[in-house]
Known about the structure:
The protein is mainly alpha-helical. The chain has eight helices and no strands. It has helices spanning 2-12, 20-46, 49-59, 63-91, 105-127, 131-135, 139-182, 185-201.
Amino acid sequence: TGAFGRALNRIYGVVEGRPIWKLRPWNLLVTFTMVILVVLTMLTVLLSGGVIEFFSDHLGIGDQITQIWNWVRWLIALVLVVALIALLYYATPNIKQPKLRWISPGAAIALVMMGVAGAAFGFYVSNFSNYNATYGTLGGVIVMLLLIWIMNNVLLLGAVLDSELERARQLGEEALSIASQSGDWAGLGRAHNVVGIVLDGL
């Protein structure tokens, strides 16, 4: 989280002004929370029908529960991933945000691109590469590191979009304030329209 926070600080154009005695425990807390969310997401996805059937046979639960779970688990995994992205965007940069946004335009685009990039990378690994033959037992580790690198870049791209929208909102509010003070009613109307468009995007 430290490296990701420094990257977000550069995207937002701020410096890391938090003292080390405050920053380090905060990063550890964020990392611990992220690990819990990742583990819960993996357990939700990997808890397939066979495991549910095992418990249903011993607990007397019908087959409908297994069918429902096969659909519900993806929804739960999606909610956990959304919470993970929201935590990263909110807690890691050194910026004062008014509130925690569960989904932002950048986070939504990052979420979609993560799914597309993950599927494309999985297709590439399965059909066009042979990391195990080239790197031996390290092949799985290299594939995992490449996947993490791809997801990290996708998340940074979403953060760039959010930062640009925030800058546009601030510029629109400044233009609105200047126009209202100078009595430029035409400029005031244009600035008001710009702020409205940006806020709709946020």
